[in-house]
Each structure stands twice: as structure tokens, then as C-alpha cells.
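User: Can you recover a sequence for this backbone? Please restate the input before giving your answer.

Assistant: Of course. Working from this structure:
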């Protein structure tokens, strides 16, 4: 197991290094002048030159990337226009629009995205796994057909439509909840939970459809195996077969997919964050693109990519822990 973990971590380190090269090259070495894009069309040549110096674009390509990589591990000094600012590792640069360190900006927005992703994960696991198990128990009956229709409807409905429907029904028509307004957990935990309830339900219900299908197919596949037929021959009940035996076959892929989806949510919940006004990483990325704040865009993209890579590692480790055959192979 230790060798397997070390192999996965080593592979993740290589992928992260390649990711940093691709991200830096995509935004800073692509055709065009990043300094002009960041500064705007109305900037004078002197202002563009100042921005180019702040972004380090006056250096050679190798020096630029070396400084970028050095900042991630050791920190670096950044020109702020009026002086030099020390940016401690991991340094992702300085926002051109706000003069705020990108690392501080991301750390400030990260809790909102993390709380959205983890809360939605609980919702999609409860709804998805429960629906999948119920479909497997009631296969061939009207309950299974009804659940299949509901999961297909959830898959085909865009997440922003589902969010708008919940807002209109729960907040406007029934008035069970006020319209969400994000409050940090540290300020008011109760208000934070109530305001995050609709975003959790929106994102969780949207994602639960694939977990329902995955759980149902994995459960039915396990129920068709020889040892399950042996248990049936000995008179073991169907509920016990599903709960104690068949569910074990569905757990490893569900765990692995959940870890992967949580990592993807760090950048893939843009619509949900924008709809409910959650100041997360996805919304920060969109805001940075709008004003062409390259350090913010590069920093957020790199963090989102790293979250996906690390989520893949966690998914592989959880899958290996749930199914020892993966490590043995």
C-alpha cells in the first residue's frame, strides 16, 4: 500500500509541474501582448511598459517561468508600481486591478467554494445512493420506473434552471426561506447554513442523477454474481443481500467518483456561485476574465487544476482502500 501511495503522489507531482508549464504558457506566452490586454486599449505606451515590468514580461521566457516557479516554492519580490512587495510562497502574483496578492484572494474565496462542494456532496450521496439502492430493490416495478424518470429529468435540466425554480418556489412563492445572501461560517454559522441550503440542494440534486444510475447498475451487477445466488438459495432476504453484500460492490466507484467531483466543483460550480451570489473561486475566475486580470486568472486556474489532480489521487487512494485488488494489481 505504501508503494502504491508513493507512486500516486509522484505521478501527481509530475502532473502538477506539467500543469504549471501549460497554464503559464497559455496565458503569458501565447500570441498577443498580455501587458496590453491587462492594461486596456486606452493605456499609453508608458503605462503598458509599466504593466509589462510588473508582470515580468520584459525578461526572457525561461527567466519568466523560472521566477514564476520560484515564487510558488520560495516566494519572490514583485513590483507594485510604487515599490517592491515581498510575496511569500506560494506566490501566485499580484492582482493588477486591486494590488492584492492572488494567494490571499484565493484563500479568502476558498472556504465558500469548499463549503458549497462538500455540502453538495452530502446531498448527492444521500439522494443518489438512496435512489439507486431503492431502484435496485424495486427493479421491474413502478417505483423503479418513476425513479428512472426523475433521474433522467435531473440529468437533462440545466443547473441554473433548477436553481431558479428553487428560488421562485421556496423563496418567492412559499416563502419558507429568504433569498440567499452569503454569510461566512465564522460570522454566523446558523445563517450560513440556511443561506447555503438552496445552493447545496441545487448542485447536489443536479449531480445525484449519475450517482443513482451508478449505484443501481453496480448493485444489480453484484446481485447477479454467483455468491449472491448462493445466499438466495440459503434463504437470505433481498433487503439483507442489497444492504450487506450488494452495496459493497457499489461503494468503491461511488467513493472514487465523489472525490473526483468534489475537486471538479472547485472550478465547475460557476453557475451556482453566480446565481446565489457565493464569492467562490468560480465567480472570482469569471470576474478576473472580465477585467483581464491575468495574475488572478492564472492563479485561480492553477489552483483549480491542482484541486482536480489532487482529487484524482484521493479518488485512487479511496478506491484502493475500498478494493484491495487495485493495490495488488
Amino acid at each position: 500500500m505504501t508503494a502504491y501511495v508513493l507512486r500516486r503522489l509522484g505521478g501527481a507531482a509530475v502532473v502538477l509541474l506539467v500543469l504549471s508549464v501549460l497554464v503559464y504558457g497559455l496565458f503569458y506566452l501565447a500570441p498577443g501582448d498580455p501587458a496590453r490586454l491587462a492594461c486596456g486599449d486606452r493605456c499609453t505606451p508608458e503605462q503598458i511598459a509599466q504593466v509589462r515590468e510588473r508582470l515580468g514580461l520584459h525578461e526572457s521566457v525561461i527567466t519568466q517561468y523560472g521566477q514564476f516557479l520560484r515564487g510558488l516554492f520560495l516566494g519572490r519580490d514583485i513590483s507594485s508600481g510604487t515599490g517592491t512587495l515581498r510575496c511569500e510562497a506560494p506566490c501566485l502574483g499580484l492582482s493588477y486591478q486591486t494590488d492584492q496578492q492572488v494567494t490571499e484572494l484565493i484563500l479568502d474565496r476558498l472556504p465558500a467554494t469548499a463549503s458549497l462542494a462538500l455540502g453538495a456532496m452530502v446531498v448527492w450521496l444521500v439522494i443518489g445512493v438512496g435512489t439507486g439502492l431503492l431502484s435496485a430493490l424495486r427493479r421491474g416495478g413502478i417505483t423503479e420506473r418513476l425513479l428512472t424518470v426523475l433521474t433522467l429529468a435531473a440529468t437533462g435540466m440545466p443547473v441554473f434552471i433548477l436553481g431558479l425554480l428553487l428560488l421562485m418556489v421556496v423563496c418567492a412563492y412559499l416563502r419558507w426561506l429568504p433569498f440567499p445572501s452569503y454569510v461566512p461560517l465564522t460570522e454566523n454559522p446558523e445563517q450560513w447554513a440556511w443561506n447555503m441550503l438552496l445552493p447545496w440542494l441545487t448542485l447536489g440534486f443536479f449531480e445525484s442523477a449519475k450517482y443513482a444510475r451508478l449505484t443501481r447498475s453496480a448493485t444489480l451487477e453484484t446481485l447477479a454474481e454467483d455468491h449472491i445466488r448462493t445466499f438466495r438459495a440459503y434463504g437470505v432476504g433481498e433487503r439483507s443481500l442489497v444492504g450487506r453484500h450488494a452495496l459493497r460492490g457499489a461503494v468503491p466507484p461511488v467513493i472514487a467518483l465523489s472525490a473526483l467531483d468534489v475537486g471538479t466543483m472547485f472550478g465547475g460550480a460557476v453557475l451556482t456561485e453566480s446565481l446565489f451570489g457565493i464569492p467562490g473561486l468560480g465567480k472570482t475566475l469569471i470576474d478576473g476574465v472580465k477585467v483581464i486580470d491575468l495574475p488572478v486568472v492564472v492563479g485561480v486556474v492553477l489552483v483549480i487544476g491542482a484541486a482536480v489532480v489532487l482529487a484524482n489521487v484521493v479518488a485512487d487512494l479511496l478506491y484502493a482502500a475500498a478494493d484491495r485488488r487495485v493495490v495488488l494489481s
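That completes the design. The mean pLDDT is 82.
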